[in-house]
Amino acid sequence: QVQNIEGLVxxxxxxxxxxxxxxxxxxxxKFVHILDxxxxxxxxxxxxxxxxxxx
Length: 55
Fold this sequence. Notes:
Blueprint: H1 5-14, E1 18-19, E2 24-26, E3 29-35, E4 41-47
Antiparallel strand pairs: 1-3, 2-3, 3-4
């Protein structure tokens, strides 16, 4: 789970990390997949923030 997925993806790109796909947005959050230094696929997730009523 991450905060500010767009900013993180930009930093990862600058540092040479392989980004496998574009950030996708769903009702429950944003997702993107990267490869770690050993070639393992990792999913990054930024949840949707709850509104003031906790929903």
